[in-house]
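Office hours follow-up: a student asked to see two folded examples consecutively, so here they are.
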Amino acid sequence: MSYKKIPLSYFWRTFEEILLEKGEPFKIIHEKGGEQTFWACINKNKALVNNSVDISLVQSKNFLRVGLYVLDKTSNLGVRLIRNRKYIDDELTFVPRWESGERNSNTLRITAKFPIDNNTSRELIEKAFPYIMQFFAIAKKYGKYEFFDFD
């Protein structure tokens, strides 16, 4: 399917506007070295981190991915999440994907994906927002200090 590519600066500006409209339930960082990234981390001090609540606009594969990113599934955090998989799945109102990383098979991603297709940035973010909030709650419950640099 063909779709119009979304400029990253526009997408993140729209996301920031929606956060303001929703009372700023969290902060996002989506720049590295002064450049826009295709991913954002929630409540982190920098955009490239080992563990995060992740929002990624993967236009090359036509999806917005939201979820939990853990660099090492054998770490305390990774083991804790895997051990609690049934509880996590039961706490969510959707069925998440539990995946290993493509480049690093030791990476754990617990995600939901939304096709970009011809959605506007606002439509895409609004669809994903309830899922992001659920991942945010799971991160707080199972790894607050590993996932976040601040509240």
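And the second, which I mentioned at the end of office hours:
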Amino acid sequence: MLVSTDFLASDFISEIELPSLLKAAKEKGTIILPLIVKPCRYTNSYLSEFQAVNGPNEVFSDLTEAEQDKRYLKLVDRIVELINK
């Protein structure tokens, strides 16, 4: 999930997309990998129970391109790790 203020404020996301994903996470262990792309109230959201790829103080819009690449690599490494389990 690419998380931003717009994402968290979206009725479509909160009413259509997320309920089934959160249910799957709770009941089936589906992995949720939030990536905070812009400053937002992530820690006060319903997603805060999931560890984001980056911290709320390390949002992509504040990082250099090199740091963004490092976060993308971290995300890809985590996905590969989950696939290979």
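Two things to take away from it. The chain has a mean pLDDT of 91. Strands lie at 2-3, 35-36.
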